[in-house]
Amino acid sequence: MRWVLLLIGLSCVIAPKAEACLLRVQVSDFPPYSYQRDGEWLGSRVVLSQRLAQKLNCVVRFYDVPWARALILLQQGDLDLMFNLTPTQARESFLWFSRPHHLEQLAFATTLADPQWQQLNDLARLPDFPGIIALTQGSYMGAPMMQLLQQPRFRQKTLEVAERRVKNELVLKDRAQGLVEDLDYLKFAIANFPEYQQLVITPLRLAHTKVSAGFSKNSVLFAQKKTAGTGHRRAGC
Predict the structure, then answer these.
(1) Contact, 220 vs 21, CB < 8 A?
(2) Which of 68, 85, 94, 197 could share a disulfide with 138, CB 3.0–4.6 Å?
(3) CATH number at residue 218
(4) Rounded Cα–Cα distance for residues 168 and 140 (Å)
C-alpha cells in the first residue's frame, strides 16, 4: 500500500507526456533498495522508478552517481530523480519532494572489539571514539550529529567520501574503524556478505528521519509542473 500511495504522489508532481521521454534516476550499490546483478539494476527503488516511468510514458535510465555529486546534478537539472532524501530548506530550493517513502534510521557500526564501543548508545561519547569514522559526503545525519561535526576536535576523527561503497571499504579494510550507515542496509549486508560480519551495529541511532524522493526543479522533464499542477489538484492530488 505504501508503494501505491507513493506512486500516486509522484505522478501528482508531474503530468504524463504524450510522447516518449527519458527519466534519469540516481542509483547506487545500496541493497535492498538498489543493487546490480549480472549488469541489471534491481531493488525496490528500481522497481518504483520503472513503474513511474511507465505511468509517465518515459524510458528510465539509471545513473550510478555518488551521493554528493548526484545532488549537484539534480541542482543543475542533469538528473531528474533521487530517492532517500531528507527534505531540508537548502534542498527545497532546487527540489520538489514526494510524500515520505521510508523511515530511515542511521546507525553507528564499528569493527572494534572493545565492548564499551560495541555498546555505544550516547552520541556525546562519539568524540572520544579511538579510531576514524567514515561518513558519506553530503548525507544529512540528523541535527545533533551535524552540530557535532562543527567541532574541530571531532571533525579530525571523521573521513568523508563521496561513494558509499568506498566508505564501507575503508572500514572493511581497517582504514577506518567506525561508520554511519542506514540500519536496514547494515542488517542486509551483515546477513548476506561475509566481509561485513566483522561489523557490530551499536545501539546508537543518529537519526530517525522520513525520507522522500526528490525531483529536480531544473529538469526539462519536470519543468511542466507549474502548468500541470492546477489540473492535478483538481483531480484530487
Answers:
(1) no
(2) 68
(3) 3.40.190.10
(4) 17
Strand partners, 182: 106
pLDDT of 216 higher than 90: yes
- Count the domains in the chain: 2
Whether residues 84 and 25 fall in one domain: yes
Nearest CA among 106, 86, 58, 123 for reference residue 211? 86
Distance from C-alpha of 117 to C-alpha of 59, rounded to nearest angstrom: 47
The whole-number pLDDT of residue 165 equals: 85
Tell me the pLDDT tens digit for each residue of 14-33. Answer: 554 545 689 999 999 888 88
Q: Are residues 87 and 157 in the same domain?
A: no
**121, exposed or middle or buried, with CB in 10 Å at 0-12, 13-18, 19+?**
exposed
How much is the average pLDDT of 117-136?
97
**Inter-residue contact 67 to 136 (CB < 8 Å):** yes
The boundaries of the domain holding residue 41 are 2-102+211-234
One domain for residues 137 and 175: yes
Please report which helix (H) or strand (E) contains residue 181, including its range: strand 178-182
Closest to 70 (Cα-Cα) out of 30, 13, 27? 27
Q: Are residues 114 and 177 in the same domain?
A: yes
